[in-house]
Amino acid sequence: MRILQLHSNYIEYKPIQKEIAMAEEAAKEAKRLEEIVVLFTAVEEGDNETTAQKAIDEVKLFLEKLKVNRVLIYPYAHLSSNLAKPSEALKVVRAMETYAKEKGIETYRAPFGWNKQFTISIKGHPLAEQSRVILPAKAEEEKAEKVSEAVKAEEKLESFWYILQPDGKMVPVEAFNFRGHENLEKFAKYEISKVRASQQMPPHVPLMKRLEIADYEAGSDPGNIRWYPKGRFIKSLIEQYVTAKVVEYGAMEVETPVMYDFSHPSLADYLNRFPARQYLLKSEEKELFLRFAACFGQFLMIHDTQFSYRHMPLKVYELTRYSFRREKSGEVVGLRRLRAFTMPDCHAFCTDLEQAKKEFIIRFKLCIQVLEGIGLSKEDYETAIRFTKDFYEENKDFIVSLAKIFGKPVLVEMWKEPFFYFRLKWDFNFVDNQDKAAALSTDQIDVENAKRYDITYVDEKGERHYPLILHCSPSGAVERCVYALLEKAYKQQQKGEPPTLPVWLSPTQVRIIPMSDKYLENCEKIAETLETQQIRVDIDDRPLTLQKRVREAEMEWIPYIIVIGEKEIKSDVLPVRDRKAKKIRKIKLEEFISEVKKQVQDKPFKPLPLPRQVSKRPQFYG
RNA sequence: GCCUCGGUAGCUCAGCCUGGUAGAGCGACAGCCUCGUAAGCUGUAGGUCCCGGGAUCAAAGCCCGGCCGAGGCUCCA
């Protein structure tokens, strides 16, 4: 809806002739109103009664400022090129009139559908002329209400919390002794009571800026992050790594669109199962939403795919860059929770529960491996397993086997009734320095979507069936992995250890510092040697003191620093300053090379993301 | 969405309470220093004190309104 709002000394108008068949009845006589706010109003497609009310609410606020309480609603089509149908428009205009009267505003209205002649005198003050656009209280909102009914019903479902031990013993959370499992305790508290202790800013935020990994981007929407070369580099390596692991597991990598038609039947239905948290966009007449996972694209693809039990479990994978979730502004923080994020998403289509369970175990192990590779061990995260009571009773051994594989007690959430579209779900959760938990890897058994998307496979007898679908993100959002690594590093620091990133993810693995520019050439030679071995090396050739350059290398968390001077040219051992060991070790170049290579084996490699000479680098932050 | 805090140099921040010439450190730039493992020295440039209005002789500062950001709450399928 578009309104041109004019604070007027007076307006005179006179209906001349009916313009459309829908026109209201009206006398063809002049009408004059004084000291009034005129609302030239164009009703646009999608507007409804809620829009009308919203418009009046806005106008009313304004009237209070002007200290006027008299309006004329003047239907005026020329403000928009996207007009509603006359029948709709009239309804909306009438709704405005009624609502305004209810709100105690002295309300007049010019007839709808007429060609009118008018004279107006507008007051000169700065606020006299205003144009406003009231966005339709969109269809989504109505849907959201429908949804929230469903969600409310689900909210009523009670959760029962337990701790499941690797030996299969399950005790209520209150009865569990958390000694030696402090993180699990924090996680359980976080999940159950939502108690939070900390007031501080998440430590990873200043770190991500200072290390020139990532930063907020004020020019975008909250939770849409700017990644500097080093950050892009780290992210990219993790992306490559996760993808390689999933492909090795046997999934086929695909790519699907980032946006989908809001009115597509399968999608609309699925969307309605979730709170309205999408980014919406309008293109010509189409309403689109940005995907919040890879499910849609993959389901639509598999719907059109011919496959039988022989191909199953059928595994499809996509690294979504990006998935979008329009989280409430207050929820978005640092890299923990974003509105645009990179999500590896792997679906497995299984014939029956037996196959699904087998696959589930394989994937559970895969996820542990993937996180381990990224640099997060079982010490760093906690597991939650969530299921319905029925499922538990029928699959006790299976669930216990998960806990056994994990090898630590896990948090259990049990429901009496089916919850959303899954029967069983687990997630790994990182507990950070604010005692907040963030989910990383997850997998779930989906019993519903095959039907919704009409995905079927052919069995041995040639009959069609709906498969079970497993949804897995082997690492969780890649950005969140970076968050976890930074938070972990901060924890190390708090314990008095040097904060580090895994060597394979360190943008610079080795920093060479010449004592003076006399030794630059020697440094270049060593750098070449390391580089041919796929070790990322750079040279701090800046004319600064040695101490200062060592300090800055340490502050960049570079794992190895080598200073080259007179002694080094004459000897075949190098003084390697080892960040983790906190000392300088004399070691031969070949030995050093094999030591570094040992630490990064099996991991993807990318060359240095910045100029080799530190003097050639811009400063992105600070 | 609610509550709280904030917006001053590229960055981190002081100044604001108690109105009177715009500050520091770091960084950048220019130069000196050629150095043995976490900050060498000197100098230069750099400002719409978020925006609008008000009261005042006078506003970065006080008052009102707005915008933006952050943290907390809530939320987290």
Fold and architecture overview:
The protein is an alpha+beta fold and 622 residues long. The chain has three domains: 2-137, D-tyrosyl-trna(Tyr) Deacylase, Chain: A, CATH 3.50.80.10; 161-194 and 201-258 and 294-485, BirA Bifunctional Protein, domain 2 (2-Layer Sandwich); 503-616, Anticodon-binding domain (Rossmann fold, 3-Layer(aba) Sandwich), CATH 3.40.50. Helices cover 33% and strands 28% of the residues. The chain has a ten-stranded mixed beta sheet. Strands 1, 2, 3, 4, 5 and 6 form a six-stranded mixed beta sheet that branches. The chain has a five-stranded mixed beta sheet with strand order 25-24-26-27-28, sandwiched between helices. Helix 14 links the parallel strand 24 (510-514) and strand 25. The longest helix is centred in the middle third of the chain and has 22 residues, at 353-374. The structure holds one RNA strand of 77 nucleotides.
Tally of helical runs: 17
Kindly report how far apart the N and C termini lie: 45 Å
- Within CATH, the superfamily of the largest domain carries the name Bira Bifunctional Protein, Domain 2
Strand content: 25-35%
Structural class: alpha+beta
Question: What's the average pLDDT?
Answer: 86
| Rg from alpha-carbon coordinates | 32 Å
What general outline do the C-alpha atoms trace? globular
**Total separate domains:** 3
- As a percent range, the share of helical residues equals 25-40%
**What can be said about the biggest beta sheet?**
10 strands, mixed
Stretches where pLDDT is under 50 for at least 5 consecutive residues are: 137-154
CATH fold call of the largest domain? BirA Bifunctional Protein, domain 2
